[in-house]
Design a protein that fits this description.
mainly alpha; Endonuclease III, domain 1; two-stranded parallel ribbon
């Protein structure tokens, strides 16, 4: 799918990992709970760092957190946290490691109450992706009313590292909002496929 000759959003730069992520994943609507959980953990880990840094550590995260199997991460304990703080390949911040486990447990509670995290998340936009219609990077906000609303609700449910700015980046990543620039070749490709998101 990766294209080499068309205009891309300015943020992805020239790094091959960022380009592949932009071309193949960013903004594509996600209905799979495991992937929704993966992006939630990665976006939280990214706080204060570059997204390229996180992409380079993505395989490390998959190895450290059981390929983002939610139940397995939720079952991790203090000894696991201690072990992960000395593990190469992930962000070894104590609070971020702890929050991944805390968030897995909160994620399971949402699955239990809503049937899936997908159903919980996509109900905020009536199951249909939002079209940002951004003409330039400067038009993309750091947070929105929607990200603030979801952030507040998640915090009430016990999630951490889910502030409104992190959550807006999350909504962009999992396709709740299509924030590709209008001139980007992926904007039209994603927009043409956007329809009601069906959750399991």
């Amino acid at each position: 799918m990766t294209s080499t000759s068309t205009y891309r959003c300015a943020w992805c730069g020239s790094d091959p990992l960022s380009i592949a992520y932009h071309d193949d994943e960013w903004g594509v609507p996600v209905a799979d709970d495991r992937k929704l959980f993966e992006f939630l953990i990665l976006e939280g880990a990214q706080a204060g760092l570059s997204w390229t840094t996180i992409l380079k550590k993505r395989d490390g995260y998959r190895e450290a957190f059981h390929d983002f199997d939610i139940s397995s991460v939720a079952a991790m304990d203090e000894s696991d946290e201690e072990r992960l703080r000395s593990r190469e390949g992930i962000v070894r911040n104590r609070l971020k490691i702890s929050s991944a486990i805390t968030n897995a447990r909160a994620f399971l509670r949402i699955q239990s109450s809503h049937g899936s995290f997908c159903r919980y998340l996509w109900k905020f936009v009536d199951q249909s992706p939002l079209d940002g219609k951004r003409r330039s990077p400067g038009e993309i906000p750091a947070q929105t009313e929607l990200s603030r609303r979801i952030s507040g609700d998640l915090k009430k449910r016990g999630f951490r590292f889910v502030g409104p700015t992190i959550m807006y980046a999350y909504l962009q990543a999992v396709g709740v909002v299509n924030d590709h620039e209008i001139g980007c070749y992926r904007y039209t490709a994603i927009r043409s496929k956007n329809a009601t998101v069906l959750c399991g």
